[in-house]
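URGENT: need a sanity check before tomorrow's submission.

F., can you look over the Oxidoreductase record below? I want to be sure the sequence and structure line up before it goes out.
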Amino acid sequence: MTNVRLVAVSAGLGKPSATRLLADRLVTAARERLERQGEEVEVRVIELRDLASDIANNLVTGFPGARLREAVEAVTGADALIAVTPVFTASYSGLFKSFFDVIEPDALTGKPVLVAATGGTARHSLVLDHAMRPLFGYLRALVVPTGVYAAAEDWGGAGDGLTATLPDRITRAAGELAAFTAAARQARPAGPAQTPAGDGAKEKEEAEVVPFEQLLASLRPGRG
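Structure tokens as predicted:
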């Protein structure tokens, strides 16, 4: 069994930052859920603040430096991705968008992605649906149903009567990411299938198709 490569991208600018804190909590929950499924997990957290100058240089020159190239390869080679950004002017940060502008449009095709964001007030929570989902939809990623938004009052709070608490949302989103990751790994081509040489048939790759109903069933409460 190959290890599951779990990569988180944090676009927080401060140190420490609420964005990195949320990324760490999501990584911990996702790793625990994957390990409960019998997977061995390799974790990598990429801090975009450390790559800001590299990203800017790439946008100007069109050539990524060694550090940025390695980070992009880690993201595109991941089995599952967690993407977390602070909210600036009602959307994701420019640093966050610039990093994903560097990635080839088809490099995240079919990759399970959990989107998350942090902000000062709950009124910015729609950033998950009006900005982040369209971005990863354009990149053809497989975004899990539950996005996680953490406002200032969510840290250590009990939430309100209409929304689940932050730990509940983290747990639910991590479970969905683990389920999507398992399904995506099962659906990968098993490798070229050899046919009798005398028939002149070519090698072909066959992928196991996981029915969408089965994928949804794995997300229901009480499973896993």
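My own read: Helices lie at 18-36, 52-61, 66-76, 94-102, 127-138, 166-186, 212-217. The domain at 4-217 is CATH 3.40.50.360 (Rossmann fold). If you see anything odd, call me.
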